[in-house]
Structures are given as C-alpha cells and as structure tokens.
Amino acid sequence: MIVGVPREVKSDEYRVAMLPVGAEELTRAGHRVLVEQGAGLESGISDEQYAVHGAEILSSPEEVFSQAELIVKVKEPQADEWPLLREGQMFFTYLHFAADEELTREVLDTGVTALAYETLRGVKGDLPCLTPMSEVAGRMSIQEGAKYLERPHQGRGVLLGGVPGVAPAHIVVLGGGIVGKNAARIAAGFQADVVLMDINIERLRYLEDIMPANVNTLFSDRHNIREQLQRADLVIGAVLIPGAKAPNLVSAEDLKIMKSGAVVVDVCIDQGGCFETSRPTTHSEPTYVVDSIVHYCVTNMPGAVGRTSTYALCNVTLPYIREIANKGLQSACDRVPGIIEAVNMHRRCVTNQAVAETFGLSY
Ligand code: NAD
After folding, report:
1. Would 25 be classed as within a structural domain?
2. Do 86 and 54 share a structural domain?
3. Given 275, 299, 323, which residue is the final one in a domain?
4. 126 lies in a domain?
5. Same domain (yes/no): 74, 173
6. Which among 138, 187, 309, 312 has the fewest CB atoms less than 10 Å away?
7. CA of 361 to the centre of ligand 1 (A)
8. What is the Cα–Cα distance from 206 to 243, expressed in whole angstroms?
9. Are 239 and 334 found together in one domain?
10. Per-residue pLDDT for 347 more than 70?
11. pLDDT at residue number 243
C-alpha cells in the first residue's frame, strides 16, 4: 500500500503523523511511505531521518495526496486540503466531525473513506488514539490555566499553590476521564485545592481511590456545578460523549456567579465545548474575555508541545496503520474489530451514528 504523510497546515500545529520508525516498519513490510518535505521539522524530525529509514520525500502536498491510498494526518483536513482528497482514498486522522457541519459535508462530498482516531475503539472499549492527546491536553490545561490566572494575562492574579498563610487556588475539573484525571493530578502537584466532577459514579469511586488528598470528587449535577463555579479560580472543561457534541454544562448566565478574572480552559472545545460562551481559538490568540471570565479554547492544545505529542500519538497509531496497510481495510476491521468504529464515512455515506444524528444525515 502507498501511505502518505502530509505536512500539517492547521494554524500553530507542530505535530506530524508518523515517526521515522513507522516509515522503517512499513517499508520493511513492502509498503511505500511518501512524506511531504518538512513534515516532521516542527517535531524535531528532519527529512533525512525519514529518508534514511525508507521514506520517499515529496515536495508538495499535491504529490502526496494524488498518489497515496492511505493518508495519515494529525488534524482534520483544512479547507485548502479538501480539493486534494480523492474518491476511495482512506484518510486516517483526528476528524471531530460532530463539531463542524461544513467540514462534515465537504469531506462526505469527496467520497474518501474517513477514519477518525477519536472514535477507534480498543479491546476494553476505550479510545486508544484519543488517550495520549488527552493525557497531554489534561496536563497542559493546568499549565495554561496557571499562566492565564496571572494578572498581566487578565486573570485574577492567583498562584495555584498559594503560599503558607494564603489559600491555594480552587480548581474545578468537569469530567473525570483521561483529560480530567491528568488535569487533577497535575493540579494536585501544584498543591491547589481540586474538585473533580463526573456523572459516572463508578469512575468517581476509582478516582477517589487513586487521587492525592487535595483532590475531592463530586457528582456532576446542575446544583453542584453552580456551587463550584462560585468558588472556582480555574475551571477545566473535560467532558465527552463519544462522537457527539459536548453537553452544555455552563450557560452564559452562569458566568455571572463566577469570580471576576477566573479562567476557564475548555479542553472539550474540539467537540463544541461545555461552556455556552466557548468558541474555538488558536495558539496565536488563545484567549478572550466574556463577563470578566478569561476563556482559553484552543482546539489543538497538544500541537504546541509537538515534540512530546508526536511521539505519544505515533506510538498508538502505528499498530493500526500497519494493520490497515498489511491487510487492507476490510480484513483489518475483521481482525481488529475496534477499527470499524473509526470509519466515520465510507462511499459517501456517514457510518457514525452520532455524527449522522448531529446533522440530520442518513446513517
Ligand atoms: P473521556 O471519555 O476519557 O472522559 C470524559 C468524561 O466525561 C467521562 O468520564 C464521562 O463520564 C464524563 N462526562 C460526560 N458527561 C458529563 C457531565 N455532564 N458532567 C461531568 N462529566 C461528564 O474523554 P477524554 O479523553 O478525557 O476527552 C475529553 C475531551 O477533551 C474530548 O472532547 C476530547 O476530544 C477533548 N480533547 C481536546 C483536546 C484539545 O486540544 N482541545 C485534546 C485532547 C482531548
């Protein structure tokens, strides 16, 4: 199979979808790997490192897209890339269709087979290709929140850990999945006062067992959320209903009960966000202020730490890329059933129920 690795073109995206070791493994198995010139540079990987391990370096995205049977990428196709997608081609990347109707309709129209990292299921029903980026984003959410709580960034001027005699910051994490767990752990390390909320009581039991003493768990309902918002210096949005738009947990009206200069980091913005006032931002302009609350809503947080994120992502995607390249999509789905969950579009049909329902498309 011919596997293509284009350079990422989304604003401030510094990751790449394959490591030199991936090129080596695929070419050793008899496949061709086409890497766009400079694709790995922002993650610290040179064209020579790919070439020495068997990849062919091509100078333009057109050359990669026009030849590859399987395109592997990091972010959803950008408008400039839509015309490059070919009927019948497989496209394996983060897609997050439910958050973007125009993207969904444009990609559907191209006739590609769209495979989403974020809906691929592992053997335990987990989401193995989402996990590493959620780990990165969860850890990063506290580091970003700490920065924007500083007064020069329009925050309240609160230090996460406080100091002896001065209370630490109160941090509320909505959603106790991978993002939430990682956020809470790092926040606890900063010695903040942390509340971790979820609707899954079993999950809360588990989190209660493993978290340090300065993390308390709380059931996520409307009353508890509003009570926590009043106390919060920093709120992390980390909920997920797989494939669907994020539930709206904090309304525009709710911001009025929060402290002036509090910060919200809406990590689940890639699924539409869980604050009514969230709108996607980029690393170049990450924040905006609504009712004196600083909003950080970057859709590709891990992109900023490309050297960590590229390795974390490629470690988990390569086994699936190898399986699809070696066996073809049909056999790969038979052998590794979770792969079929990744197929969001095939032959101009939406094959993911949540995406179809979100936009009233046939499924
Ligand atoms: P996850 O499935 O591990 O966790 C989600 C949690 O949300 C679950 O425990 C679930 O029970 C909980 N939940 C659902 N509804 C809830 C509610 N009403 N109140 C409280 N909790 C609720 O998912 P994850 O891997 O932690 O990812 C969370 C989100 O972060 C996803 O939307 C993911 O796409 C996003 N994400 C964004 C970035 C970024 O760069 N912005 C990076 C990585 C992940």
Report:
1. yes
2. yes
3. 299
4. no
5. no
6. 312
7. 24
8. 24
9. no
10. yes
11. 66
Task: Indicate the SS3 state at residue 193.
Answer: strand
Residue-wise DSSP of 29-81: TT-EEEEETTTTGGGT--HHHHHHTTPEEESSHHHHHHH-SEEE-SSPPPTTT
Task: Evaluate whether residue 331 is within a structural domain.
Answer: yes
* C-beta 240 within 6 A of ligand 1: yes
Q: How confident is the model at residue 99 (pLDDT cuts 50, 70, 90)?
A: confident
- Ligand 1 nearest-atom number relative to CA 134: 43
Closest residue by CA, ligand 1 atom 15:
239
Residue among 248, 267, 287 to mutate when testing ligand 1 (max atoms within 8 A of CB): 267
Q: How confident is the model at residue 11 (pLDDT cuts 50, 70, 90)?
A: confident
Within 13 Å of residue 118, how many CA atoms lie on the same side as its CB?
23
Distance CA 108, CA 361 (A): 11
Structural domain for 231, as ranges: 131-299
CATH of the domain at 64: 3.40.50.720
Residues 112 and 43 in one domain: yes
CB count within 10 Å of CB 251 equals 12
Percentage of the chain modeled with pLDDT above 70: 100
Specify whether 196 is located in the same domain as 265. Answer: yes
Structure confidence by residue, pLDDT tens digits, 155-174 = 999 999 999 999 999 999 99
What distance in angstroms lies between residue 84's CA and the mean position of ligand 1's atoms?
32
96 noted as active-site residue: yes
> Among the three residues 299, 317, 336, which one is the final residue of a domain in this structure?
299
Instruction: Please give the share of the chain, as a percent, with pLDDT higher than 90.
Output: 94
Residues 93 and 186 in one domain: no
Q: 80: pLDDT confidence band, cut at 50, 70 and 90?
A: very high
39, 16 Cβ separation under 8 angstroms: yes
337 and 249 share one domain? no
Query: 137 and 115, same structural domain?
Result: no
CA distance 125 to 132: 16
> How many domains are there within the chain?
2
Q: Which of 96, 100, 233, 254 is catalytic?
A: 96
Question: Is 291 among the catalytic positions?
Answer: no
CA of 241 to the centre of ligand 1 (A): 7
CB 169 within 8 A of CB 193: yes
**Distance from the alpha carbon of residue 48 to the mean position of ligand 1, in angstroms:** 38
ipTM above 0.90, yes or no: yes
Over the stretch 263-300, which tens digit does the pLDDT of each residue have? 999 999 988 999 999 999 999 999 999 999 999 999 98
Check if 134 has its Cβ closer than 6 Å to any atom of ligand 1. Answer: yes
